[in-house]
Design goal:
The structure is a single chain. By secondary structure, the chain is mostly helical. It has 2 domains: 9-94, Orthogonal Bundle (Rna Polymerase Sigma Factor, Chain: A), CATH 1.10.1740; 102-198, Arc Repressor Mutant, subunit A (Orthogonal Bundle). 70% of the residues lie in helices and 0% in strands. The protein contains 9 helices and no strands. Helix 2 packs across helix 4 (76-94) and helix 6 (122-141) crosses helix 9 (173-198).
Length: 203
């Protein structure tokens, strides 16, 4: 979920009036930067992040204008997060430069449960998993040091020996394996967040 203040119900109500431009400006000011940070930690470039944030807020403006929303049952932050996540996943889905290697995909399959999809839609499930994995890895990468990520990437995703990686980074083989274990735990937690809290996976 985006890191922003809780929903101001009065402000949302005021923003539903198309003539109240000040209320909309305040909503935009409140949620634009948190959306950008959410996109950044999901591995998007600054340009991609701005596009997703703008599209998310545009979707909110459209919905506000056409219906009476009651955020007591579904928080504004939750709705913005879900909307942004779908756009973020689309960005990753259509990228070519971020395709996981065969070895990395194999490791992700070992570490994580499969995304939901009907048994007769295996191809759709595999595509769904692929871009969700990339988002998951990007978020974990944004939470750790560059060196930790490089060690993990070389050892766990790149298939290099722990002793070789230890020499490259002037550390021990034990530390390389510890970093791998901790990173896999982070990945599993982030996957759980993505799959069960932040998005509704559609078959």
């Amino acid at each position: 979920m985006i890191d922003a203040q809780t929903t101001n119900h009065e402000l949302v109500t005021e923003a539903q009036n198309p003539a109240n431009n000040e209320a909309w400006i305040e909503l935009h000011r409140t949620y634009h930067d948190p959306l950008i940070r959410h996109c950044d930690r999901s591995g998007l470039s600054p340009v991609e992040a701005e596009d997703v944030a703008s599209l998310t807020l545009a979707s909110l403006a459209t919905r506000l204008a056409r219906s009476s929303l009651k955020w007591e049952t579904s928080s504004l932050r939750g709705w913005l997060s879900e909307t942004a996540n779908r756009l973020i996943f689309d960005v990753h889905l259509h990228r070519k430069r971020d395709q996981l290697s065969a070895d990395a995909a194999r490791m992700m399959q070992e570490w994580l449960p499969p995304a939901f999809a009907p048994e007769d839609e295996q191809e759709a499930r595999e595509k769904m998993e692929g871009h969700l994995w990339r988002v998951c890895l990007a978020r974990v990468k944004g939470e750790v040091s560059a060196e930790q990520w490089q060690i993990f990437e070389a050892y766990a995703l790149g298939g290099r020996k722990s002793s070789e990686v230890a020499t490259l980074f002037n550390t021990t083989s034990l530390n390389v394996r510890v970093i791998r274990s901790r990173m896999v735990s982070r990945i599993r937690l982030e996957w759980k967040n993505i799959a069960k809290r932040e998005v509704e996976l559609q078959p």
